[in-house]
Design goal:
Elements: E1 5-12, H1 15-23, E2 28-32, H2 46-58, E3 62-67, H3 76-88, E4 93-96, E5 110-113, H4 122-131, E6 135-137, H5 144-153, E7 160-167, H6 179-184, E8 201-204, E9 210-215, E10 222-224, H7 229-235, E11 239-242, H8 249-269, E12 274-275, E13 280-283, E14 297-298, E15 320-328, E16 333-337, E17 349-353, E18 359-372, E19 378-384, E20 399-404, H9 406-413, E21 417-430, E22 433-440, E23 445-451, E24 455-456, H10 460-471, E25 479-487, E26 492-493, H11 496-517, E27 537-538, H12 547-555, E28 560-561, E29 574-579, H13 583-586, H14 591-594, E30 609-613, E31 616-623, E32 628-633, H15 637-644
Parallel strand pairs: 1-2, 1-11, 1-12, 2-3, 3-4, 4-5, 5-6, 6-7, 7-11, 10-14, 21-25, 27-28
Antiparallel strand pairs: 7-10, 8-9, 8-30, 13-21, 15-16, 15-20, 16-19, 17-18, 17-20, 18-19, 21-22, 22-23, 24-26, 29-32, 30-31, 31-32
Helix pairs in contact: 1-2, 1-8, 4-5, 5-7
GO molecular function, one term: peptidase activity
Keywords: Hydrolase, Protease
InterPro entries: Pept_U32_collagenase, Peptidase_U32, RNA/ubiquinone_mod_enzymes
Length: about 650
């Protein structure tokens, strides 16, 4: 990708979703391979990835494969073989976390740094660029100022900046959360996170007082940078990434289309920028991020720290407010809608908050429109799927939200977009026949000729119009006509069968020309001598899990290298999560918030807090200088015992340098 190009990067749980992401405007797709991806249940065969590649490359869109877990020593060779298979299948790049892969004999496939590599500083970004990574996805927690500083420290001709613009937010710095492994043995760095951050917790202060009860204090709202795209471009971002390799087809279609429209609007205003792939999309629906599952939205830290980034009441989808309960019946509930234009459908998902602010779901079985209410809203009777006596605190006046519209779901189950590459068509007369030329918007050309004797048209006034109409019928191809030029000696008649054959052959030639000019993304060459790593000591936080990763960092000047947390050397209390989110700040208990407040200044200190969920207890410690929070705990004895009872295929002792022969 060139420095002036903008890339919309969409997720794909499987190849079919990836194909629809391309159809809805994605310039690139990221998808998991058959193993070693950070979403353990979103795996795909090499054959399916090859199928996706064939479709994406027609539009010069790219396919990136995630191989972004940390690897055991015994997994390095299988990973190497898989990478060769993916390269042969046409994959354009690998998204990686484990630096041990850079020590292997790999094909010349481009390498991108996963969000799991925890890129927060200009020094780390510059190092990864110098080590041979061509695209780096920055930490979600960065501000515009920090992103700008990273762009200034890197070379846009050598390394692209990628940034998450939409989707679920992991509360931890990516790659810096070990709670799942400590509590269950399931490692987030190995693609198997148990999502402890979405659980409810009781929060106690240093004196044991409860300051929050059953709140999801580690659960973030969902990321939405729709309003910040232009500012992110100015800061240096060129790849705009949508989170969601677990998400369904409807989500990927809708969110891809949403950002395609926003980026295209910016491109119209800024001619110095360009799309990273070809074709224009036509959508048969109005994209709307609110229609998909979300925990409400935040732009997180891009514009600075804010208080309302958490989804503390519920990790579920609250949906959009549509009205109020007007009457509760033994077998149904009546709702007055706030907007008369709103229509409900059988199967819609509704919800409301009970008196404890817990979200209660109400799936409709059948709905009936009754008539107009007192204020012009419409009254609907809802027959729920579940018995009425199970809906806690459902009463007159309760606000009702809709978090799933069946009409919306059904609309996205149909064909919802098409993507066409603009093409100029020219039919010209030549000695002994005709030549048809198709030239696409990227300058590729396909030609076809036919030997025939032109017949004069019976109706000269309509002849040219009919020829243009027939030639412009590009139908199910990926091309659409921009203009049709006729260079004939006069109004002529050409049999439809001849025109169809010419058009079919020219389209085939044009597709072949496009395929032949698509060059593989180049593998970056690391600088020599090897660039020094910004630090000379690595703790378990560096996720070094195999000898090749250890060799990589040693070659780049690191002197002390601890093994990854998954090696289970850290049996005492350590930071199990590091996060920019601060519970004290979100609960208005931050010393900086109290600064200058009469009667409060000096009374509020960043003392530890405790999180309790059942038998699980975690300590929150606050590092106010960098404004970070550490969630502290230790690995469970049951996890250690489970590992000890199994034959271990990774090193439980710190990797040591190999002795020279």
């Amino acid at each position: 990708m060139l420095p002036h190009q903008l890339e919309l990067l969409s997720p794909a749980r499987d190849a079919d979703i990836g194909i629809e992401a391309v159809n809805h405007g994605a310039d690139a797709i990221y998808i998991g391979g058959p193993s070693f991806g950070a979403r353990a249940s979103a795996e795909n065969s090499v054959q399916d990835i090859a199928r996706l590649v064939r479709h994406a490359h027609r539009y010069h869109s790219r396919v990136f494969v995630t191989l972004n877990t940390i690897l055991r020593d015994d997994e390095l060779e299988p990973a190497r073989k898989l990478i060769h298979q993916l390269y042969d299948a046409g994959a354009d790049a690998l998204i990686i976390q484990d630096m041990g892969l850079l020590e292997l004999d790999l094909p010349p496939i481009q390498l991108h740094a996963s969000t799991q590599t925890d890129i927060r500083t200009p020094e780390k970004a510059r190092f990864l660029q110098d080590a041979g990574l061509s695209q780096i996805v920055l930490a979600r927690e960065l501000t515009l100022k920090q992103i700008t500083a990273i762009r200034a420290a890197t070379d846009p001709d050598r390394c692209n900046i990628e940034f998450f613009v939409h989707g679920a937010l992991c509360v931890a710095y990516s790659g810096q959360c070990f709670i799942s492994h400590a509590h269950t043995g399931r490692s987030a760095n190995r693609g198997d996170c148990s999502q402890a951050c979405r659980l409810p917790y009781e929060v106690k202060d240093a004196q044991g007082r409860i300051i929050a009860h059953d709140k999801h204090v580690l659960s973030m709202k969902d990321n939405n940078q729709s309003e910040n795209l232009a500012a992110l471009i100015d800061a240096g971002v060129r790849s705009f990434k949508i989170e969601g390799r677990y998400k369904d087809m409807g989500y990927v279609k809708n969110i891809t289309a949403h950002y395609r429209l926003l980026l295209d609007e910016i491109l119209e205003q800024r001619p110095e920028l360009a799309r990273a792939s070809s074709g224009e999309c036509t959508f048969f629906f109005q994209p709307d991020p609110d229609q998909n599952f979300n925990r409400e939205f935040t732009d997180y830290f891009v514009q600075g720290r804010k208080e309302d980034i958490g989804a503390f009441d519920s990790p579920k989808n609250p949906g959009q407010a549509i009205g109020w309960v007007s009457k509760v019946n033994p077998d149904s509930v009546e709702i007055e809608l706030s907007d008369p234009a709103t229509e409900l459908a059988n199967g819609d998902g509704l919800c409301y908050y009970d008196l404890q602010k817990e979200l209660v779901g109400l799936q409709t079985n059948r709905v009936e429109k009754l008539g107009k209410g007192a204020e012009g809203g419409r009254i609907w009777r809802i027959f729920p799927k579940d018995p009425m006596d199970g809906f806690k605190d459902l009463r007159k006046g309760v606000e009702v939200n809709r978090n799933r519209s069946m009409d919306w779901v059904r609309a996205l189950e149909k064909k919802s977009a098409e993507r066409k590459i603009g093409t100029w068509i020219r039919l010209e007369q030549q000695p002994g026949g005709l030549k048809l030329s198709l030239t696409d918007e990227d300058g590729h050309c396909g030609e076809a000729s036919a030997s025939l004797e032109l017949q004069p048209a019976r109706d000269p006034s309509q002849a040219d119009a009919k020829l243009r109409e027939q030639l412009g019928r590009l139908g199910d191809t990926i091309f659409s006509p921009l203009d049709v030029t006729l260079a004939l000696s006069g109004p002529s008649f050409v049999p439809a069968s001849q025109l169809n054959a010419l058009r079919r052959d020219a389209v085939g030639q044009l597709e072949s020309a496009r395929a032949s000019t698509l060059q593989r993304l180049p593998r970056a060459v690391p600088v020599e001598p090897p660039a020094p790593y910004p630090e000379d000591t690595l703790t378990y936080l560096a996720n070094v899990y195999n000898h090749k990763a250890r060799d990589f960092y040693a070659r780049h000047g690191v002197k002390v290298i601890a093994a990854a947390y998954e090696s289970q050397e850290e049996e005492g209390e350590v930071s199990l999560m590091i996060t920019k989110h601060c519970v004290r700040f979100s609960l208005s208990l931050c010393p900086k918030q109290a600064k200058g407040v009469t009667g409060v200044q000096g009374q509020v200190r960043a003392e530890p807090l405790q999180l309790i969920n059942g038998k699980e207890k975690l300590t929150l410690r606050f590092d106010c200088k960098p404004c970070e929070m550490h969630v502290v705990g230790k690995i469970k004895r049951s996890v250690l015992n489970q590992a000890a009872a199994m034959p271990l295929q990774f090193y439980r002792t710190r990797p040591k340098p190999q002795q020279p022969a």
